[in-house]
Amino acid sequence: MDVGSREQGAPDRRCRADRARQAADVIRRQVVGRAFPDGVLPDELVLAAEFGVSRNALREALDLLREEGLIDRVPGVGTVVVGEKYPHGLDRLMGLAEVLHEHGEVTNDIRAAGPIRPPSSVARRLRLADGEHVVYVERLRRLNGLPLSLDLTYLAMDVGLPLLDEDLRHRDIFSLIEQTSGRRLGTAAVTLEAVNADLHASTVLEVPRGAALLVVERLSHFADGRPVDLEFIRLRGDRLTMSTVLNRVGSVAAGSGA
Amino acid sequence: MDVGSREQGAPDRRCRADRARQAADVIRRQVVGRAFPDGVLPDELVLAAEFGVSRNALREALDLLREEGLIDRVPGVGTVVVGEKYPHGLDRLMGLAEVLHEHGEVTNDIRAAGPIRPPSSVARRLRLADGEHVVYVERLRRLNGLPLSLDLTYLAMDVGLPLLDEDLRHRDIFSLIEQTSGRRLGTAAVTLEAVNADLHASTVLEVPRGAALLVVERLSHFADGRPVDLEFIRLRGDRLTMSTVLNRVGSVAAGSGA
User: Fold this and answer.
1) Which of A67, A165, A175, A192 to mutate to test the interface with B (most CBs of B within 10 A)?
2) H-helix or E-strand spanning residue A159
3) Which residues of A128-145 are buried (b: 16+ CB within 10 A; e: fewer)?
4) What are the C-alpha distances in Å from A204 to residues A134, A140, A146, A208, A242?
5) Rounded to a whole number, what is the distance in Å from the CA of B28 to chain A's nearest CA?
6) Nearest-CA neighbor of B65 among B45, B49, B37, B44?
7) Which residue would you say has higher pLDDT here, A124 or A249?
8) For residues A44-65, average pLDDT
9) What is the average pLDDT value for chain A, to the nearest integer?
10) Is the CB of residue A197 less than 8 Å from the CB of residue B17?
11) Do residue B243 and residue A191 have CB atoms under 8 angstroms apart?
């Protein structure tokens, strides 16, 4: 096969914006993966050579990551990492405080907590009879004071009411459910979307209007299959990543070992 | 426990924006889940009663979903669904055409395809020796002509070179790898982020500048554990969702059956 004849598709013929994006994607992963231990990126000329791009394309790549709030230029120092991203595993069903305990203290501002009549589609997902109420809990969740996520939670009444007397400010709802019910949670169905922050959500989460958020819907079940906890979660895209391992073969996804 | 005394946390005391968001989250899932078979939402008064909010709060909720490009108002008809979201399973390692075959035809604009010298962090992830080249493939992927994702792919040389003679325009890279190598893919490590589209990416993907994108990094391995395919994927947040099932207990995630 003559690769040289594929002039049109040759990766070195693309426009600067394409080359900048290609470099930015790799550097983003390095930043998130803490590949620069002192938080300072190599010199632009070194990076440009590393990625085989012009200095202008490399600067465009760094501009993209600066717009994302990951890096910044500091005169006399160079390009430094300014935004940390925290990993939220998609491998197991875990609460935020469980996941992030090594990164600091998770606290929750309780914006609402009490019984409501749920909309019918929420009632259906929780397999409730017509007219049954749920406990609604709305929390702004912080890591070391920094707002990370806004969680809207609908709980089956028997599961949710005991939680209202517990320490919702410092505890994950998952662990409180298991403690107060004496039962284990089993599986959760999770759906992820990327959505731009509206004005009010951006104010609450302290991000610019329109900032990219991960929106997660998560329906958690007791081990016996009964759905008890339906959550709508807005996660700051500039501060959280989600990871998992997928299997090519079979219907069972892989664990976190690969 | 006296729920009535929790005035501050009472869900019915919150501001309109909070109530609007709460309603919007539930309606968004109904739209994505095709809960409105004729594509027309119920009357505003019906929805307001359903969600226990004022008509103004309900309108604010619909405004949020209109900004996301999911619904629109049509005079004389009402509020209609205008944006379809396609489900991309996170349960199994599958190519886009495999995942979306029931929704239509996936075609790929090949923006680049050929050997390059990879940046060192890419070489390390593919476990390549210093100086080894990779095959780089850049594709704009469309479903029925609509741009859905921009994929930047680095392939080990022995795996990637044979693909350059294949039908990259109509086939998933996963299935081409398995066909040309005669080997099966095993697991993939996946990381998801939400990122705002830069000017150039927004032009390519035909979304507004700043639109929320899902950015996926995926490192796929042969069944023997050798990493062969590293991809950086930008997915349109307004057109794709990703779903999976998580397990509370143990290190092995659940399948898609729950």
Assistant:
1) A192
2) helix A157-160
3) beeeebbbbbbbbbbbee
4) 25, 8, 11, 10, 22
5) 10
6) B44
7) A124
8) 94
9) 88
10) no
11) yes
A246 at B interface, C-beta within 8 A:
yes
Q: What is the nearest CA distance from A8 to chain B, expressed in angstroms?
A: 8
Confidence of residue B88 (pLDDT cuts 50, 70, 90): confident
| Closest C-alpha to B203, from A51, A18, A26, A8 | A18
Partner A contacted by B258 (CB < 8 A) = yes
DSSP classification of residue B15: -
Tell me, yes or no, if the two domains B3-81 and B86-243 fold the same way. Answer: no
At the second CATH level, the architecture of A3-81 is Orthogonal Bundle (1.10)
The terminus-to-terminus CA distance of chain A in angstroms comes to 34
Beta strands in chain B (DSSP E): 71-74, 78-81, 86-89, 106-116, 134-143, 146-156, 185-196, 212-222, 227-236, 240-247
The helix/strand count (H/E) of chain A reads as: 8, 10
Write the residue in A116, A195, A254 that is nearest to B212 by C-beta: A195
Integer Cα distance of A116 and A134 in angstroms:
6
| Matching residue, tokens 């950015």 | B215
CA distance A163 to chain B (A): 11
Name the residue among B3, B90, B217 with its Cβ closest to that of A246.
B90
Q: Give the integer Cα–Cα distance in Å for A26 and B5.
A: 53
List of chain B residues whose C-beta atoms are within 8 Å of the C-beta of residue A136: 11
Report the side by side order of strands in the sheet with A227-236: A106-116, A134-143, A146-156, A227-236, A212-222, A185-196, B240-247, B86-89
| Contacts with A214 from chain B: Cβ below 8 Å | 192-194
Domain regions of chain A by residue span = 3-81, 86-243
Q: What backbone torsions phi and psi does residue B124 show, to the nearest 5 degrees?
A: -65, -40
Task: ipTM value, please give it.
Answer: 0.85
Instruction: Write out chain A residues lying below 8 Å of B191, CB-based.
Output: 29, 32, 87, 241-243
What's the whole-model pTM score?
Answer: 0.86
Look at residue B83 in the predicted model and tell me its pLDDT.
82
User: Among all residues of chain A, which has the CA nearest to that of B114?
Assistant: A10
What is the token pair recorded at B100? 């979306």
Q: Coil, helix or strand for A26?
A: helix
Least CB-CB distance to A257: which of B22, B242, B251? B251
B135-182, pLDDT tens digit by residue?
999 999 999 999 999 999 999 999 999 999 999 999 999 999 999 999
Number of cross-chain residue pairs from A and B with Cβ atoms under 8 Å apart: 331
* Contact at CB, A91 and B246, closer than 8 angstroms: yes
Fold of B86-243: Chorismate lyase (3.40.1410)
